[in-house]
Amino acid sequence: MKKDVVSTVKAPAAVGPYSQAVKLGELLFCSGQVPLDPESGQLVVGGIEHQTHQVMKNISEVLKAADLSLSNIVKTTIFLKDMGNFTAVNEVYASYLEKPYPARSTVEVARLPLDVDVEIEVIASF
Questions:
Q1: What is the separation of C-alpha 98 from the centre of its chain, rounded to a whole number of angstroms?
Q2: Number of domains making up the chain
């Protein structure tokens, strides 16, 4: 199968040897998004809720670049620096999605890129 790269200037650019998303067959694999404002290139401040909103907006823009939406997500992985933020992140995350919800894993990690508090990656289906 042929891999096609998906990218948009409306989400933070890849800062390493990876793509914002890769289409393979009927699936889109989106790299993890962190709370970077794509216009300023700066991290969003103001707490975990604001950060999670920015992450979900970034994910939405990557999906739009592939002519998809958040409703096409089939699997999500949420990486948290502190599992104590689970409830707050979960509330924001849920506000962007509708039933049936995608499958999901949430894990606490020691550290994330740019020392952010949350990173989310998704797999979506065409």
A1: 16
A2: 1
- Long-range contact pairs involving 49-54 (C-beta distance under 8 Å, separation at least 24): 49/88, 49/91, 49/92, 51/116, 51/117, 51/118, 52/88, 52/89, 52/92, 52/93, 52/118, 52/120, 53/92
Tell me the residue range of the domain where 91 lies.
3-125
pTM, entire model: 0.96
Mean pLDDT of each 10-residue bin along the chain, 126 residues long: 96 93 98 97 94 98 98 98 98 97 98 95 98
The CATH number that applies at residue 18 is 3.30.1330.40
